[in-house]
Amino acid sequence: MKILFRTMKYNWRYIFSKSNKIAVALFSVWGFVTLVTPTDIMLNCIDNVVLRIIVAVLILMVIYFAIVIGGTIYTKQRKQVKIFDLHSNHSLFVEYGDLFNSGDPNEEKNIAFAGNRCFDTIVDDDLIGSKKIHGMALKRIYEQGNRDSDTVSNEIQNNLSLHGYKYTDLKQKEKRSGNLRRYDVGSVAEINGLNNEQYFILGLTYFDNELRAHVEKIDYIKAIASLVKYISERSQGFSTYMPVIGTGGADAGCVNDLVVYIVKTIELFKDEIDCDIHIVVSDKEEKLGLMNLKML
Question: Per the UniProt record, which residue ranges are transmembrane (predicted)?
Answer without folding.
Answer: 54-74
